[in-house]
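pls design
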């Protein structure tokens, strides 16, 4: 379990170059608990949870989507305490319960709040592969590890598509697209424009990563906002940005003997 906590922290820290936003250090206890919320458009919020690592707060992105009487979350905050904060905020601010959570791969910054959600009776949906890895890594079994690799469904006024493009950051990484307003949650498969680093690649499949991103780019060719796992969202340019980071890394990697 300890190893996986370390992996999660490493995943987060290496995935992201600290932005100037955090140049002024806030209180560490506040950061460890805190979750921020940014409204992206009507009915869609980005949640940003932080971990304090090596003296710096590191942010992770997820989404909250509103229907008339219920909410859907894409990716949990990094731990149970932050997930609890998110649930309290949603209760107070949006006055609706979460009915469904979709996790985009089995690392702590995506499924770290799984136990809290299950304590509240909220179903966590993943692909069977993410369900398997979530158990192997000690995060527990998602209640609905049955998502197909490509599936589209309605949630309130939104049409959502869950898509597995192939391996990259991990073997199980999926993306979630919202047809209108054309937002794609890329998770850790996609890099923010603020970084040039491949991030944590301990579980990555480097040779397949670029092709998987190309498939996302093809399938979501009309995306106007792309949300990476860490750092600020961008436009479709994040797809090619990510590919160039991976290709550069592959070229610089020492050849295998
Ligand atoms: Zn990860």
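designed seq:
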């Amino acid at each position: 379990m300890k190893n996986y906590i370390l992996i999660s922290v490493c995943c987060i820290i290496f995935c992201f170059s600290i932005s100037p936003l955090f140049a002024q250090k806030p209180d560490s206890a506040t950061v460890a608990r805190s979750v921020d919320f940014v409204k992206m458009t009507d009915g869609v919020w980005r949640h940003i949870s932080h971990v304090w690592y090596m003296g710096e707060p590191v942010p992770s992105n997820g989404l909250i989507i509103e229907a008339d009487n219920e909410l859907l979350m894409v990716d949990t905050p990094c731990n149970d305490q932050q997930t609890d904060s998110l649930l309290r905020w949603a209760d107070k601010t949006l006055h609706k319960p979460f009915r469904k959570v979709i996790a985009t791969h089995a690392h702590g910054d995506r499924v770290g709040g799984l136990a809290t959600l299950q304590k509240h009776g909220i179903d966590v949906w993943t692909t069977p592969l993410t369900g398997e890895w979530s158990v192997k890594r000690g995060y527990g079994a998602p209640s609905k590890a049955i998502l197909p690799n490509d599936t589209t469904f309605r949630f309130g006024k939104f049409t959502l598509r869950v898509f597995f493009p192939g391996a990259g950051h991990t073997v199980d990484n999926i993306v979630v697209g919202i047809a209108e307003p054309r937002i794609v949650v890329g998770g850790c498969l996609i890099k923010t424009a603020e970084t040039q680093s491949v991030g944590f690649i301990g579980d990555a499949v480097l040779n397949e990563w670029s092709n998987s991103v190309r498939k996302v780019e093809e399938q979501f060719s009309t995306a106007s906002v792309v949300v990476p796992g860490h750092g600020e969202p961008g436009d479709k340019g994040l797809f090619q940005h990510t590919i160039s980071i991976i290709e550069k890394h592959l070229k610089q990697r020492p050849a295998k003997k």
